[in-house]
Amino acid sequence: MAKVLVTRKIPGNGVKILQDAGYEVEVGQQDSPMERAELLQKVVGCDGVLTQLQDKVDEEFIKAAGSNLKVVANFAVGFDNFKMEDIQNHNLAATNTPDVLTEAVAEHTFALIFAITRRVVEADIIAHKQSQAFGPEVLLGMELKGKTLGVLGLGRIGGRVAEIGKCMGMNVIYYDVKQNSEFEQKVGAAFKAVPEDLLKEADVVSVHVPLLDSTKHLMNAERLGMMKNTAYLVNTSRGPVVDEAALTQALKDHVIAGAALDVFENEPKLAPGLESLMNIVVTPHIASATIEARSAMGELAAKNIMAVLNGEPPLTPVHK
Ligand code: GLV
Fold it and tell me: Which residues are the active-site residues?
């Protein structure tokens, strides 16, 4: 009987799909990512592992699992926790969960955009104190209609954020390594050949690039300095894409108007000083956290494992 480890409890039918397929399924019961030592011990003899984005899959993991291992299925669209070279050297299948979380992440991106531009969190704290009534100059924010949304990275999620921005009456500009003329025509978005041109124009910059060597600290002090001082930065991609120390300084110095982050360089920690600022809204990596998306992610990951263990191609493979 094939053995599958699901490293942490997941919502929806993912585990049931694996059990119904007849596998011996072990599910991590802890409320946090599995400790490395435990992970390396639990993967021994597994044919498939349903991993979380904190589970590093590298040579050490693969060696610990042993020769039965055929597939690692990430419960995430991002897969920077996979050392793809090691995975490919061992001819293992690796999969992620694209599409099923696009809407959830795009909607949360807009939740953050509204929260920071309309100062919702700040206002909530003040309203709880019951001391502030209507005031002509109280908690003024920025309207989105007619403003420019700059999307950095036009993948599935960036594309959906651009569409929602368009529905909000925003002008949409985007930067990506590849120009997408079809998308430009469909949505009415304008391409910028370099990120710098986007940063100078956008009122809201929303980051949707994968974490790669080339995108680490894409938003550094210099690029933050190119943004308008009335503009906002939003990041729902991966923490290290933004240099958080540089962002903290930029927010303190009012180089930009504000930021909203769902991801951090060293989760769950924030860069020193960030936690005390009021011109930032933070959420703990919950952009895909809807019942719909998280259930579908578990089911897709389970189906990827089943496909590979049945000798079929995975539904959503990832490559280097
Ligand atoms: C979450 O961050 C994901 O990559 O799905």
Answer: 238, 267, 285
